[in-house]
């Protein structure tokens, strides 16, 4: 067990935390109970603000998505050395793209909406999605998210060197703020080690989160999928304010 996974356990055995709970109605039968690919929720999402969703998508789908991305990006190196700006969460630029500019991300977000709703137990609508490629040594500073991120999934698509890299989430619930910190300042947090295809379901508005240990891989690929409750206080954030407008029609020639 890695140090990060041990932090996730917080001194408890898996049995004390609770056995993985098979998701109701996500797909048909679990694919394989013996090789760890069963979709399972580990943790108490309501109490801690996050839970580990093991096997949310097949690793083959994650790999296919990344291969398609690479194909769409072209064969050249990612020109990050020419990028001068980066979000204040990062110490240096990363490759980032929003679903608005790379539609496969939005389609992924829309397609996972029913599954996310079942995980949360509430009717959800999508807000936005984005993808980030982190490089070796990268960190993501501790922060909270905007209201469009009422319920979110951080999904791991790939690690260049197969080394899991934990997403850390503070257990304490806080009011959202623009504060960005290098660490949790002594506050209790869980660190979830995701395999490829695993996700962390988290309430990023009220639970600060980040990746405070440097990425041990040459690169790693993650997508971030965000939803709001259809009838909740942030319902107006659905589709990130770019929802369907005007009449839809098809003409035929
Ligand atoms: Fe975030």
What does this structure look like?
- By secondary structure, this protein is α+β, with helices and mostly antiparallel strands.
- Helix content is 19%, strand content 26%.
- The strands form 2 sheets. An 8-stranded antiparallel β-sheet has the order 1-2-3-10-7-12-5-4. A 4-stranded antiparallel β-sheet has the order 6-11-8-9.
- The radius of gyration is 18 Å and the shape is globular.
- The N terminus is likely disordered.
- The site of fe (ii) ion (FE2) has 4 residues, from loops.
Question: Topology, pairings included?
Answer:
Blueprint: H1 3-9, H2 14-17, E1 21-22, E2 40-42, H3 45-48, E3 50-54, H4 59-73, E4 95-98, H5 103-111, H6 113-120, E5 124-135, E6 140-143, E7 151-159, E8 167-170, E9 189-192, E10 199-202, E11 209-211, E12 219-229
Antiparallel strand pairs: 1-2, 2-3, 3-10, 4-5, 5-12, 6-11, 7-10, 7-12, 8-9, 8-11
